[in-house]
Amino acid sequence: MRFILMKQFARHFFLFVILLFSSNTYANDLKNNASPYLAMHGNDPVNWMQWNKATLAKAKKENKIILVSIGYFSCHWCHVMQRESYQSKSIAALLNKDYIAVKVDRELNPVLDKRLIEFVQITTGSAGWPLNVFLTPDAYPLVGATYMPRDNFATVLTRLQKRWKTDAQALGDMAKNRNETLTNMLETQERTSSNKSIATAVNHLQQVMMKNADSLQGGFGNRKFPSTPQLASLLALSKQKKNKNIDEFLQLTLNQMARKGLHDDIGGGFYRYTVDPAWDIPHFEKMLYTNALMPLLYFDAAEHYNNPEYRQVALETLHFVIESMSGKGNAYISSLSAVDNKNEEGGFYLWTRQQLANILNKQELDLAYKIWGLNQTNELPAGNLPRRDDSLAELAKKMSKPVKIFEKDINLIRNKLKAYRNKHRGLPRDTKLLASQNGMLLGAFAKGVSYDQSLYNHGDRLSAFLQNLWNGKQLRKSAADATSGTLDDYAAVAWGLLSWGKATGNKKATQTGLAIAKIAWQRFYKHGIWSETTHSLLPKGIKLSHLQDGAIPSAEFFLLSASQLSEDADLRRNISAVLGNSTRSIETDPYAYASIIGFSIGYR
Question: Spermatogenesis-associated protein 20-like TRX domain location, by residue (predicted)?
């Protein structure tokens, strides 16, 4: 579907681009914002404003184009564009004179982010962060792009303003018409019933995923993301019926993710993705959602394949979160930056031979070289990344050592390296305490507590934190933001609380989770259509029969999972209604709906 839309609109988009290109100390509204990402732009010379009704009214009154710049705290290229462009006096002068500049934290406004990512993906063929989208004063998207070097950005600003000055009406009409056409086409594709249940898409999902699977390196694509919605659905398929090809691919992928560059083998936790197909070099930011979802995948895989290594990976990841991502109020922060406190990308995690020689004794150094391959010339400016090809049990066997003694030796080295980097290096932290991501983490604690009772106190305190975000009618999106959450927040928190209640017998968690789930259905699902937010400021929000996955399973998946745990008869009927209504988009692009298809496999 995305490909068809891209073909249909590429010509219009490039015609528009041709039109564009042929014819000290500062403080702004973001200073001291509760969002670290927004606050870091508080001293830019750009007159940044926030995304709200007052800002849109100002743009309309002054008839100015709106630049919506979206990013997040741990995004490397967001920092680069800030340094090159948004801290530039010349760029600021262009923006302040002719534009309304809006800075958005994507984690605090996920629905706006999804809408504009969709627009840029369809019109240019790719999207990511930093995301920069120009809107008309009526908030219709005109044109968008990701990172741009300063000179290119200045050219776009100058030529777009010149074009707006002479042809504002034509550009505004074009943007409005294109937006309405795109919205109608998306809704038609994704709301058209196929008169089949979602379960009928299972075979096609399997075919699509295995066709796209990297059978040599594991995972999907050239840049390797964890792809937890897709991997979890394949695991559900394997549980239903053993399949040699699926099992070999899953175990290869799980091994690669746990042992190579996606995983921090010294301090624990997973990075967001690797930039290469071999899982060697990560993009070094660590996200809370990644480190909440990965334990769930590894716990399930450990049970299915009877593999203690996977269980250990899951537990170590949760303990990493507790140790390194704890925030105020018994909740957990949203991310750790890819760039260390010395402005070195990955610097916190990389090692030179000289550094290792100064920290470890000779025997430890030899072992570190053998396990992690750290004795080579620096592969990155700050050093080498520890990664391995084998499990610890396999390595112990190769070195003719008992596994317990070998693991003890490895942990001693890990502890020395962790102590060194914690003392001599630092990582900027995005300290937001987000409802949705903490709900996912609570679900992971619920899964892990049966294996490790030390998780109980952490989970119980997190459960109390999430319950305090709920006032009986409304769920706050974060600890520092009284704004009502989106469907993402309601669904993930309901699932987390109900999971915790079932795992521990916590009746209050169960009651609160059920109440949130019921309100979520009432507020966000009407007449077979999902609304992801009740307060979108973009014209004509898209309302769909089913929601797509991203790096995180869809909110639809979490709300159905919560409803299944609740055993409430009304919510069970809602599940049946949703699963009984497939769409053409699910049948043509099942990869994007893997979590809901996977849910249908195991639902009874």
Answer: 28-181
Output the six-digit token pair for 268.
């624990």
More confident residue, 25 or 365: 365
- Identify the sign of the CA torsion 338, 341, 343, 348: negative
pTM for the model stands at 0.91
| Distance (Å) of CA 378 to CA 358, 381, 511 | 17, 7, 54
> Could you give the CA distance from residue 166 to residue 492 in angstroms, rounded to a whole number?
48
pLDDT tens-digit map of 93-116: 999 999 999 999 999 999 999 999
Contacts for 261-264: CB closer than 8 Å, 24+ residues apart: 261/385, 261/387, 262/224, 262/226, 263/313, 263/387, 264/320, 264/349
The CATH number corresponding to 2-191 among 1.25.40.10, 3.20.20.70, 3.40.50.620, 3.40.30.10 equals 3.40.30.10
**Torsions phi, psi of 557, nearest 5?**
-60, -45
Quick one: which of 18, 15, 10 has its CA closest to 121?
A: 10
Q: In this predicted model, what pLDDT tens digit does every residue of 197-239 receive, in sequence order?
A: 888 899 999 999 999 999 999 999 999 999 999 999 999 999 9
Query: How is domain 198-348+425-602 classified at the CATH fold level?
Result: Glycosyltransferase (1.50.10)
Alpha helices in 241-386 (DSSP H): 244-259, 288-305, 308-324, 353-359, 362-372
For 347, counting Cβ atoms within 10 Å of its Cβ (0-12 exposed, 13-18 middle, 19+ buried), the class is buried
Break the chain into its structural domains and give their ranges: 2-191, 198-348+425-602, 349-424
Cα 341 to its chain centre, rounded Å, is 23
Predicted local distance difference test score (pLDDT) of residue 24: 54
- Is the Cβ–Cβ distance between 48 and 101 less than 8 Å? yes
Q: Are strands 476-478 and 429-430 parallel, antiparallel or unpaired?
A: unpaired
* 198-348+425-602 matches 2-191 in CATH topology: no
Cβ count within 10 A of residue 310 = 23
Contact predicate 294/307, CB 8 Å: no
